[in-house]
Specification:
Helix 1 crosses helix 2 and helix 5 packs antiparallel against helix 6. The strands form two sheets. Strands 1, 2, 3, 4, 5, 6, 7 and 10 form an eight-stranded mixed β-sheet that branches. Strands 8-9 form a two-stranded antiparallel ribbon. The chain is globular. Helices cover 45% and strands 20% of the residues. A hairpin with a 2-residue loop joins strand 3 and strand 4. It binds pseudouridine-5'-monophosphate. This is Pseudouridine-5'-phosphate glycosidase. Keywords: Glycosidase, Hydrolase, Lyase, Manganese.
């Protein structure tokens, strides 16, 4: 009887999450770690700028990646906003990294998993380290109410995505289209991206 009622309660709670997404969002917020500076800034209505972390792990070698990440954060600060670099460390989504966390992510480089929105559950469940692409960063930024986001580059439709090759008995499409595009279309966040010159 006890297990019947607890499973009913869990079903009701799942149903409530569908009916009341705001409440579900609050629950999700409790699963992420927000740095004290970012948390204070959000609470007091100061400008916060989200920054993706794949450019740190996969975009440049160490230690230039660390230096660039710090420079970008200080440009955001010089302009009166609070930077929130986003990554998953030991399975915990972190919104705003301290110096030690930034150093760790940068030195791990490509051994960190490149994490798009669809990869978040896997990285969290396996307590892995994940560098967030635009789609995953958008997910976490919008969850905590950050409205502006800066990136070095977004994914697109890769060459030959719609080309088919006759492959023995079936047609093969690469369909290599970045999930950044759908995430940008669904998330109410302003994105700033410069033309890449690296
Ligand atoms: O000029 C670019 N710089 C950086 C990226 C990184 O790669 C991600 C897209 O990867 P994919 O195409 O696998 O979705 C972006 O969100 C970003 O982190 C990119 O695509 N293009």
């Amino acid at each position: 009887m006890a297990s019947y009622s607890s499973s009913s309660l869990s079903r009701i709670s799942t149903l409530q999450n569908h009916i009341s997404p705001l409440e579900a969002n609050n629950k999700l917020r409790s699963l992420v770690k927000i740095s004290p500076q970012v948390s204070e800034a959000i609470a007091s209505g100061r400008a916060v700028v989200a920054l993706e972390s794949t450019i740190i792990s996969h975009g440049m070698p160490y230690p230039q990646n660390l230096q660039t990440a710090k420079e970008v954060e200080s440009i955001v600060r010089e302009n009166g906003a609070v930077p929130a670099t986003i990554a998953i460390l030991n399975g915990v989504p972190c919104i705003g990294l301290n110096e030690e966390e930034l150093e760790r992510l940068a030195s791990l480089g490509k051994s960190v998993q490149k994490t798009a929105g669809r990869d978040i559950p896997h990285v969290v469940a396996t307590r892995g380290d994940g560098a967030t692409t635009v789609s995953a960063t958008l997910f976490f930024a919008s969850m905590v109410g950050i409205q502006v986001f800066v990136t070095g580059g977004i994914g697109g439709v890769h060459r030959h995505a719609n080309h088919s090759k006759i492959h023995v008995h079936f047609l093969l499409f690469t369909m290599d289209i970045s999930s950044d595009l759908t995430a940008l279309g669904r998330t109410p966040i302003a994105l700033k991206k410069e033309i890449k010159n690296i």
